[in-house]
Every structure is written in structure tokens, then in C-alpha cells.
Amino acid sequence: MKRPCILAVIVSAMAIAASAMTVEEFAAKTQEEKVKVLTGKPERSLDDSGQLLRLYTVGLRDPSPVVKRTAAQAAVFLVMGLQSAQGSGKLPTFSSEDSASLQQTLVVLLNDNDVGIRISAASALAYSAAPNPAIETLLLARVQAEHVPEIKAAVIEAMAQAGYQSPQLIAEATALVQPSPDSKAIYSASKVLAHLRPESALDTLVALASKASPSQRHALQALAAYGQGAARAIPVLERLVTDQAMPEDIRNLARITLEALKAGKPQPSALQPMNPVNLWPVALSPSSPAAPPTPAPEQSPAPATPRITSTPSPPSTTPMAQTPAVPSERKAPVWPWVVGLAALIVIVALAAKRRG
User: Fold this and answer.
1) The pTM is what?
2) Total domain count for the chain?
3) What pLDDT is recorded for position 196?
4) Mean of the pLDDT values across residues 81-97?
5) How many CB atoms lie within 10 A of CB 137?
6) What digits encode the pLDDT tens for the residues 124-166?
7) DSSP 230-276
8) Residue 117 is part of a domain; what is its CATH number?
9) 21 DSSP β-pair partners
10) The dihedral formed by the CA atoms of 28, 30, 35 and 37, expressed in degrees to the nearest 10
11) Disulfide-capable partner of 131 in 141, 163, 193, 327 (CB 3.0 to 4.6 Å)?
12) Which domain holds residue 55?
């Protein structure tokens, strides 16, 4: 009974070896094949997991917008997965060249015309390291240059989730929580304020909670996270609880917030914080390019843009990291074939001896 089990293991090892893929082979695949690899488990497809960052970088630089968008989304899950696996002893070792190339590629994609790619690139950068000035400067520059409120708020939310809490970030969140047609931006900004509980945003939140607007509900929820720190909102909340002109759900929310403030029990915010560590050396500088994209149809290629500064400046001279040099062709490992063939010979010999 043991021989079939051994044979199954050997055949499985041979199948894995046969399907092992190099980064160069990934680059040669069709759009559909690349998307399938990126949405699956790329680390299990490679013959060398240490080349994983190179595979993502190739995907992020793919000429296909579909592949590039998929790679950007996958990069967010990659860094989140690596963060959660810290201390497990199961992480592959990445070269400094590969990690620097991936980081610089993500910086360039902060300017992509595709809004989803911009959000994913910013999130991946935020989650890839403990809070540090280089990444913070780049992401805040992206927020200031951004034309779409939802993206501004999404970047701010990712930063707050990763542990950033600078006055500039709080100011941006406070501005975005103001009434606007973009309900997603308001919600994201309110989550950031509820999580950070900045004193500087209290007056704005109290004013927004006091009257009907798209921001009222989110302002009430944010105030509930302050607990006693938002005591100045109690008179406004007491009025709202009895204001029959307000919808019932708003009155109920005002009552819940009022109880939280009086009891001194802050309600938890909807933002789930991370405690990221540096997955690799941060190979960026505050002067890395992070220019805004020129408004254009989503299908249009992104034009070259200057670096963001408070005053006009010449185009950045920081070169984009080059695609890693293609090494000599690497074959899938042959040891499983050798072992498998030897085992098959032994099994056949034993079977023949038994029949004899």
C-alpha cells in the first residue's frame, strides 16, 4: 500500500516541476494568462519564490491596462499578506534591486490615468513599510494633486490605516468630510477622523452633525468615536434627539452618540488599523516623482508630467528603475524527474521479482 502513495507523491512533485514558471515565461504569456497568474497564487507558480517581486514589477509595467490594473490590485494583497506573515519564518528573501524596482514602479503608477491603479499603487506603498517621511511626502503630494475626491479619500484612508497621522493628513480628511455629491469620499474621510480623533476637526464635525446634509450621519458616527473628548457636541445632540423634523434614523443615531459621549465610552471606528513594518529597505526619497495625471480618457496613455512642487519646477531627473536584466534562461528543476524515474524502475523491478 505504501508504493502507490510514494508514486503519487513523486508524480505530484514531477507535475509541480513541469509547471514551474520563470519571470521571463510569465512576461511572454497572453493577457488572459497573466491575469490568471496574478489573481491566483503567483508565489506557487514561480520556480523561485525569491523572484516574486520581479514578477509583480513586470505585471505593473505591462502594456495591457487590464494586466497593469490586475497587477496593481494584486500588489496590495501581496504587501498585506507579507505584513501578516511577519515572524512566520516562511517569507522568501527578496533582493534589494527587486524591491527598489517594485517601489519605484509603484511611485510612477501614482500618476496613472486609471483611477483604480492610482488607488492601488498608493495603498501598496502605504502598507509596505512603517510610517516614514519619504512615503508620506509622496502620498500627500498625490492627495493634493488629485482631481477625484474619492481617490483623495481612499489614499488618506490607506495612510491612516498604515499609521500616518500628520496635521496635513487630518486637514485633508477634514476638508473631504464636508458635504459633497461624493458619498464615498465623505465616508472614508469620516472613518479617518473617527480613528484619529483629532481635536482640530471637532468644531467641523459638530457643525456638520447639527444640520441635515450628506455629511450629517458620518459626522455623528465620527463624534461617537471621540467619547468624552467631544463633550462640546452634547447640546447639539440633545437637540437632535428631540427634533421631530429630523428623520428617525438620524434621531436614533444622535441618541446613540449622545449616550457614548455622556458615558465616556468611545465607539470603535470602522477603520481597521495596521501596524506595518518595513518589508524591505525604503528606496525612495521625498523628491521622487509624484506628478498629477493630465485629465484624459481612461484609455489614453498617461503623458509625461513634472514633479509636484509648490512652485513650477523642471521635470524630475529621477530615473525610473529599469526592468531587471534578463538572466540566462533558467530551466525547471530536473531532480523530481530523476527521482521519479528511479522510483519507477525500483517499483517495476519489485513487481517483476514478486511475480517471479
Assistant:
1) 0.74
2) 1
3) 97
4) 85
5) 18
6) 999 999 999 999 999 999 999 998 999 999 999 999 999 999 9
7) GGGGHHHHHHHHH-TTS-HHHHHHHHHHHHHHHHT-PPPPS------
8) 1.25.10
9) 46
10) -50
11) 163
12) 21-163+273-331
